[in-house]
Amino acid sequence: MSPRWAPDPGVRRSRHVVYKLHAHLVFVAKYRCNVFDDEMLTRCEEIMRAVCADRGADLIEFNGDEGHVHLLVHYPPKIALSSLKGVSSRYLRAEFTDRVNRATMHGRFWSASCFAGSYGGTPLQVVKDYIENQRRPA
């Protein structure tokens, strides 16, 4: 006899919680500086994937353009998504000193604000497609 429902592969379990949390994040460079090129976006994605993995989250989709990045993150309820900004800022400022004007950006890489939206009832594929279609610099 087969079960009447199939388990959702997006549902995660840890010791004390069962969750299915996805957030669409948009981080903007300080003063909307156009600092990203393909190399820097690729490195930013690597950093974001590593930070997510360290915290038990998954970076599902990543893209961006000259001044901002979009992320779709599947995360456990215990982590603060804003921690992605702090860690990535330190790495990007250290690795791309030629592109990050410390005087203009006052020692910060990201704007203090960000967008964080839960995907709610929207099909996850719609959010993934939107992020995938964000323009990367040529």
Automatic annotation (TrEMBL):
Ranges where the Transposase IS200-like domain occurs: 18-134
Record-linked Gene3D superfamilies: Transposase IS200-like (3.30.70.1290)
Record-linked Pfam families: Y1_Tnp
InterPro entries reported for this sequence: Transposase_17 (IPR002686), Transposase_17_sf (IPR036515)
Cited SMART domains: Y1_Tnp (SM01321)
Superkingdom of this protein's organism: Bacteria
UniProt-recorded name of the protein: IS200/IS605 family transposase
Organism: Streptomyces sp. 900116325
Lineage: Bacteria, Bacillati, Actinomycetota, Actinomycetes, Kitasatosporales
